[in-house]
Amino acid sequence: MTQPKMAKISRIRQLSPIWVVPIAAVLIGLWMLYNHQQQQGALLTLLTADAEGIVAGKTQIKSRSVDIGQVVSVELSRDLKQVIIKARMKPAITALLNADSQFWVVKPQVGRGGITGLNTLLSGVYIELQPGDSTQLQLQHQLLDTPPVAPADAPGIRVVLSTKESGGLAAGDPVLYRGYEVGTVEYSEFDLSLRRTQYQLYIREPFDVLVSENVRFWLSSGFSVDLTAEGLQVDVGSAATLLTGGVSFDLMQGWPAGSVVADGTEFQLFPNKQSIQDGLYSEFVEYLVFFDESVRGLKAGAPVEYRGVRVGTVTSVPFFFSIDKPFEVSLQQGIPVLIRIEAGRLYENLTLAQLRQELEKAVGRGMHATLKTGNLLTGALYIDLDINQEPVQDVELLALQAQQFSLSQSAGYPMLPTTRSGLSNIEQKVLMALDKINNLPVEQLLVQSEQTMQSTQILMQNASSMVAQLDALVANPQMQQLPAQLQQSLQDLQLMLAGLSPGSAAYDRLNGNLQTLDQVLREVQPLLQTLNQQSNALVFEAEAATDPQPKRAKQ
Hints:
7-stranded mixed barrel, 555 residues, 10 helices, 24 strands
């Protein structure tokens, strides 16, 4: 019986061709993955505060109405304060994703420029890309709330306006040069550190050469009415600013244009064109004046004129400097007002030293300030300067001016004397006359008149008794023996006394005059009592007096 043979086992030294299939599959998969990544393009990240209308997998990114990408995800940031939008872009547009590129959402909007984005009512909102001219690649951008006014590389110039007041401008408002629209307001922001509002303006080419170093910018409202001491001023803007407003710029009259400014130059924004003109007078001499009459209607900015020519401006009404009792000072010395005499309003090339010297001479010659009404409709006042050649003789006025001079010196300002206006002088004289009437001894006059009437009545009675005695004397037979002349004299005296007896014309006329005098004094008595209660009742209507109330009987 033969034994079985053992199988000989040996290792295969070559790879099996079967491994070619999985290796090829892996290589093909890697190549497909690489090719897919290359065809997808860059992954863009957009940051915004609100993702209204944006849907992942649906919202498109467009540039000039061509699809260049699609939103792939919309999610909140880790701090939950903003929205992160990721979009896959096409490979061919990577060059558009630079540092100057701008993105915003296009949706239906109603603004100052009309209605926009109506085509998105059916298709949905989309994100618009406006590329810049930078060569630096940037894949993270801020999504703008509103579309930019002009592309970043648009030909023209951009300037910045700064103001401390609320300008009321908004993005899209027109920029005007002599009524012609040459640019647009791009955006506005408030600087917390400087507490100022800043606006960026875009002025398109070829009008950018008009922006030189000496131009001034001011708010251009559509329609404004201003009632000042100088009269009624009506300003009607262009049709572009009639509803929305805008900003205008131009050179001031007589100014050179200067050189063209660089991009990003900052200018001051003035509230109106008149304020620019007022701001030109930067050199002035300040004076402190005291008015002992009402200053209602006098406001800061009111003109200071010399015989109809404006020479300065009212700075502060009232001007309460560092004093302990301002109200007491106003009662005793008058209300202080700070004014300034501006050198540029007089004549050119006038230095402050020359201006002070001329003003000191004018004050020495009697120059004084007076309040006058500039507008009867609004009651606006202005200050008028004039020279009074007559020296002041009033002792009380000189003492008052000395006190005012001491206060002005303590405040650090020279004092300008003041006088009352014509209307105030008339009012003061009327009040003085009423005070004199009020101080008349009315009661004493009435008592003396009654005593005079009583004495007159006694005199008339005595005269009647004397006439009766003379009649008896003349009728006496013994009187016939007197000389004829004496008899004639007695008869003449009898006739004269008979003319004063009761029933005669002289007696009746004298009695009537006394009764008329008594009636006049009784009618004047209520008027004098009213003047005693209210001294200005002849000018202003007196208040009706209440009926006297009887006193209640004691219990």
